[in-house]
Structures are given as C-alpha cells and as structure tokens.
Design goal:
single chain; 114 residues; Beta Polymerase, domain 2; 5-stranded mixed beta sheet; globular
Length: 114
C-alpha cells in the first residue's frame, strides 16, 4: 500500500519526467527520496527549475558531495542534496564528469554553496 507521502513523491517524479525530459537522464525513488540523474550540460537548468517551479521549490542546498572512482572515464560523481522547505521533500541530483571537465558555481542559486 502506498502512503500519501510516497504517492506525492511518485507524482512529482512523473511530473518532472514529463515536463522536463530533456534535463533528466534518469529519475527514480531511492529510500523514499527523489533521485535525478542529469548531465553536465543540463545540471544548472535543472537546479534552477527545481528551485523556482511552484510545484518543486527546492530552495535549500543541504549538502554537496563529490566522490572519485579512479579508472572510470567520468570518474567524479557530484551529488546535490536539496530540500523543499515548503513541501518538506528531499531530492538528490547527480551528475558525472571527467577529470578534465569543470562545472560552474551554484552560488547564484544557493548562497550557502560558496
């Protein structure tokens, strides 16, 4: 049986995949949290959408995690942990980059990212 919270998260995941499919490479629920995979070219647009859209409002960057798996082509995985204080929902946004790639800062979106 689905709880109301899980049902809401499933609906949000479905909505995001249908609304912005070009920004999301993969979406699923993991441990009752939304988990989105994106690319280096789409992560800023995705994070902006998640922060500004009225049904999302992920206005707080809780944590920023980077880990390295030597030997892989895209060896660095970057994980943004977001919180919507309005809907009390957490989301994980992940992307992978190689050792020669860089990403832009998020300080213009989240002041605590600096």
């Amino acid at each position: 049986m689905l709880t109301p919270l899980l049902t809401t998260k499933l609906l949000l995941t479905t909505y995001l995949v249908k609304t912005i499919p070009n920004l999301i490479a993969r979406a699923y629920l993991r441990h009752f949290e939304l988990d989105l995979r994106t690319s280096k070219s789409n992560y800023l647009a995705l994070l902006l959408f998640l922060k500004m859209h009225s049904l999302c409002q992920f206005n707080l960057l809780i944590d920023l995690i980077v880990y390295d798996i030597p030997g892989k082509k895209r060896r660095f995985t970057i994980i943004f942990l977001l919180l919507s204080t309005r809907y009390n929902t957490r989301m994980r946004v992940q992307l992978q980059i190689s050792e020669t790639q860089t990403i832009y800062t998020l300080t213009h979106l989240f002041k605590n990212a600096g």
